[in-house]
DNA sequence: GACAAATGATACAATTATGGTATCATTATT
DNA sequence: AATAATGATACCATAATTGTATCATTTGTC
């Protein structure tokens, strides 16, 4: 029952650090030292964020990453979706089979209620709100 | 981001069915037909519920399972804990390392808030409330 | 221009969790 | 004695997670 996987977690921490150093370029090597996270893994994660236009990158000596968006507009739900796919707490395991309750499944309804709350919350948390 | 795993799901459906047939003993073979779930897997699940005193079992011909508790007192959070372990949305992946934020981690706090809501909800849903 | 330091892309690998199967022992009914 | 059920337990297959490794490309510095 993990809400956030490790890559998402690392991504959020990296984004927070980069947001706190908004005016300069941050290299993966620095992030690795600060966050104490495996460097090749973190590289992969940041490259994804770069492809998704959350970060901008600069190659070459002195290169690194910098935010491509206002941290007040980066929602953690978006980052989660990038690394974890669609956010659903809810998948019905019997969907292809003859589920006796079909659309009236009470369990499903209750879980959906919870899911809606969780998504609302996640959609309200920004990188900016994580700083300090 | 799965709230409920497949074994928990099957367990809840099986418990619901058994609760609807409160006055008699239900064999795994019948449940398998009704729920259309793999029989050996469901057996394993029900044996766990039996060990945990959620179900009582009767061996031998004509045997099977029957509720050991009032369905209004079986909470789905308990069933989830049995199959999924402690319910935490929250595990910090840097816990052993030098997390720069330590106890003040804002992300952790926000996730904890969500977690508390989810747990409160899950602790309020009983097998009885799933019937019909 | 050569070298060093950075990211881009991508393939591969190790570990763990999930979702099962298989088998033998035990018990109870007929 | 045979049959039909659960108890216990070991095993297995697949997928997801959590990484590593490598080579290509770009850019700054000497």
Structure, explained:
The structure is a homodimer of 132-residue chains. Chain A has 132 residues and is mostly helical. Chain A has one domain (6-130): Winged helix-like DNA-binding domain superfamily/Winged helix DNA-binding domain (Arc Repressor Mutant, subunit A, Orthogonal Bundle), CATH 1.10.10. In chain A, 50% of the residues lie in helices and 6% in strands. Chain A has six helices and two strands, in the order αααββααα. Chain A has helices spanning 6-20, 28-35, 39-51, 76-84, 106-122, 127-130, and strands spanning 55-58, 64-67. A two-stranded antiparallel sheet of chain A has the order 1-2. In chain A, helix 1 (6-20) packs across helix 3 and helix 2 (28-35) crosses helix 3 (39-51). The longest helix of chain A has 17 residues, at 106-122. The first copy, chain A, starts with 5 loop residues before the first helix and ends with a helix. The model of chain A has no long low-confidence stretch (mean pLDDT 92). At the A-B interface, helix 1, helix 4 and helix 5 of A face helix 1, helix 4 and helix 5 of B. The structure holds a DNA duplex (30 and 30 nucleotides).
């Amino acid at each position: 029952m993990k809400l956030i996987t490790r890559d998402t977690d690392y991504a959020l921490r990296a984004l927070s650090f980069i947001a706190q150093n908004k005016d300069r370029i941050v290299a993966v090597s620095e992030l690795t030292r600060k966050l104490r996270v495996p460097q090749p893994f973190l590289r992969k994660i940041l490259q994804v964020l770069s492809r998704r236009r959350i970060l901008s990158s600069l190659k070459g000596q002195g290169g690194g990453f910098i935010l491509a968006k206002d941290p007040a507009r980066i929602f953690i739900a978006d980052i989660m979706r990038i690394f974890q796919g669609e956010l659903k707490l809810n998948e019905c395991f019997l969907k292809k089979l003859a589920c006796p309750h079909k659309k009236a499944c009470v369990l499903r309804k209750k879980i959906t209620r919870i899911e809606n709350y969780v998504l609302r919350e996640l959609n309200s948390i920004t990188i900016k709100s994580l700083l300090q």
